[in-house]
Write a structure and sequence with these properties.
CATH architecture of the largest domain: Sandwich
CATH topology of the largest domain: Immunoglobulin-like
CATH superfamily of the largest domain: Immunoglobulins
Protein name: Phosphotidylinositol phosphatase PTPRQ-like
Domain Fibronectin type-III: 125-218, 219-311
CATH class of the largest domain: Mainly Beta
Strand content: over 45%
Shape: rod-shaped
Helix content: under 10%
Structural class: mainly beta
Number of helices: 1
Distance between the termini: 194 Å
Radius of gyration: 65 Å
């Protein structure tokens, strides 16, 4: 027999002899037992199998038949008389199936169980397992194998699929180093392991490799907050992820404080949730995460959740001066929520006239004492409400001097100026800050039609007026002005009420003589009279008497070569003045 036929060669071992018990006591041979095999490799790829067995029977044994089957399926039988045999085998990848039977004069023992001699080790664990997605529910799995005897006809692989609980889902066999997995639930998480199976046994399963059709959920978007009640909010969101209908798919809504510490966390399968019983004066931040079979999404962008709005700006600032000191008490109103919260307070800022901040302080109540502030210096005050969840805008700037606005002048007095036709109108002022550099008065004089005839700006508490204003029907109103504020106007006062006596005689009497025409024109000044009587004298004799409302009069057809003059008398509601004479004049023919 040739090597190509892979023939078994049997060499009988020396020593043991078959039993020689008389066949008279033998009904049938017993089966050989304790069959053992020892393998010894050779350098030329051949292997040696030493097979031995035990036998105990009352039958006289003539031989033992050792039968085998070559790779082509041909039976080979060898007969030996010893209890061991050496088999030489040239294909270590092909297992040697054999059987040992006892043969006596009566016959052959019953069938022994067929045994195999395997000349190589079990397969190695497949390695370099790779996964490639071919379609929505189809994957390709491939691997490498460094085992011997992969070309043996029975050599194959099993690809097993497990769920995330390590429970077997499916298994398929292949003789290739790759296979295709189909019809897996694409929303579930699977794990794949590969095992090699050969004539020498099976390998360990490969390291489990995660196989999943769907990716982890997307980060949630369009987070919306809606206040339903005083401490009740609704949070809603959108989700573009796959596998939202998977039974285990859900969301976690986490609430954090301002220090990013977790306050509350709730689960829901809906895309909205109600949050209740949160401290409505605290600031919270909400983040939402989707959790699915393939993992979980990143948390959504934090969205501020707060039951209260930012504090409101303080209003209605009021200030009161402490008696006999430069201290002031400043009060204000605040309609904000959560004023009782521990960190709720106010910032008071005081600025000078150049808007430079000279003081800033925190205040816990709705009032503050301002010490040693001179109200007339024009300081400006601003207030702001502050809380952990926000702050208000600055209040309107209020000038400290606004709380000491000037008062209108009172107690008007009129005094004449000796030697002139002028009057001093004076008054009293009980306002503060009269020494402030910009403090002054606006004196406005109106005629009987309430049309303003004069306005003067004075720093003193008096003003000089000529007779025109005092004697005619004029009215005066005065306003105090200081540090940008001004008083209301004083009540109107009639200046004529201060005269109360007969008018002064006219003054500044002048004449304009036209000798050739024998005419004379007389002019005078008197602002308080309502009319005038003009007498024309020739010598000491009055030859003419005229009345006028004007401050001038003309006389004609004057006598020649006579001593002439004119006398003017002012008439008012209080009587008549003394007569004011003109200078003497003459009409002399040329």
């Amino acid at each position: 027999m040739t090597n190509g036929q892979k023939i078994m060669r049997v060499e009988l071992a020396k020593g043991l002899q078959p039993n020689t018990v008389s066949s008279a006591y033998c009904s049938a041979p017993e089966k050989p037992y304790n069959i053992s095999v020892k393998i010894k490799p050779f350098v030329d790829d051949r292997v040696l199998a030493n097979i031995s067995w035990a036998y105990n029977s009352t039958c006289a044994i003539s031989t033992f038949n050792v039968t085998g089957k070559n790779p082509a399926g041909k039976m080979i039988t060898e007969s030996i008389k010893k209890k061991h045999v050496a088999l030489y085998w040239q294909d270590r990848c092909y297992p040697l199936p054999f059987a040992v039977r006892a043969v006596s004069s009566i016959g052959v023992d019953g069938d022994t169980s067929e045994k195999y001699i395997v000349f190589h080790e079990a397969p190695n664990t497949p390695m370099d397992v790779h996964l490639l997605r071919l379609g929505q529910t189809t994957w390709s799995v491939s691997w490498n194998d460094s085992s011997q005897c992969q070309n043996y006809s029975g050599y194959h692989y099993t690809v097993a699929v497990y769920d995330k609980e390590n429970q077997w889902v499916k298994e398929q066999n292949t003789t290739e180093r790759s296979t295709t997995l189909e019809n897996l639930d694409w929303c579930l998480e699977y794990w794949v392991r590969v095992r090699a199976i050969g004539s020498a046994g099976r390998s360990n399963e490969s390291t489990a490799l995660k196989l999943q059709e769907s990716s982890a959920p997307n980060m949630l978007t369009d987070i919306q907050l809606s206040r339903l009640a005083h401490t009740k909010w609704m949070v809603s969101w959108n989700d573009s992820s796959e596998c939202q209908n998977y039974s285990g798919y859900h969301y976690t809504v986490a609430v954090y404080d301002t220090e990013n510490q977790l306050v509350n966390e709730q689960n829901t399968t809906d895309q909205s949730m109600i949050l209740e019983d949160l401290d409505w004066c605290l600031e919270y931040w909400v983040r939402v995460r989707a959790i699915g079979p393939a993992g979980w999404s990143n948390e959504s962008t934090a969205l501020k959740l707060q039951d209260t709005v930012a504090p409101k700006t303080p209003t209605n600032l009021r200030i009161y001066k402490a008696k006999e000191s430069q201290n002031w008490l400043l009060f204000w109103d605040d309609s904000s929520e959560c004023q009782a919260h521990p960190d709720y307070h106010y910032i008071l800022s005081i600025y000078n006239l150049y808007y430079q901040r000279v003081l800033q302080k925190n205040v816990n109540g709705k009032y503050v004492t301002l010490e040693d502030f001179y109200v007339c210096a024009g300081f400006w005050i601003r207030l702001r409400s502050i809380a952990s969840w926000g702050q208000s805008k600055d209040s309107l700037a209020v000038r400290l001097s606004d709380f000491a606005a000037p008062r209108p002048p009172t107690n008007f007095r009129m005094d004449g100026n000796a030697g002139s036709h002028a009057w001093f109108l004076s008054w009293d002022d009980r306002s503060e800050c009269q020494t402030y550099p910009g403090y002054h008065y606006l004196v406005s004089i109106f005629d009987r039609h309430d049309q303003r005839a004069l306005q003067k700006r004075v720093r003193t508490k008096y003003v000089m007026l000529d007779d025109f204003y005092v004697c005619a029907d004029f009215r005066v109103r005065i306003r105090s002005v200081g540090s940008g504020e001004q008083s209301i106007e004083s009540p109107a006062v009639r200046l004529s009420e201060f005269s109360g006596k007969q008018p002064e005689p006219p003054y500044n009497v002048m004449i304009q003589l036209q000798v050739l025409k024998r005419m004379v024109t007389v002019y005078w000044t008197q602002n308080c009279a309502r009319s005038f009587t003009v007498a024309f004298y020739v010598g000491t004799l009055v030859t003419r008497m005229e009345s006028t409302y004007r401050n001038t009069m003309t006389f004609g057809n004057l006598p020649r070569n006579q001593s002439l003059h004119v006398g003017i008398t002012a008439i008012s509601e209080y009587g008549m003045s003394d007569e004011a004479p003109s200078s003497l004049f003459y009409i002399t023919p040329s």
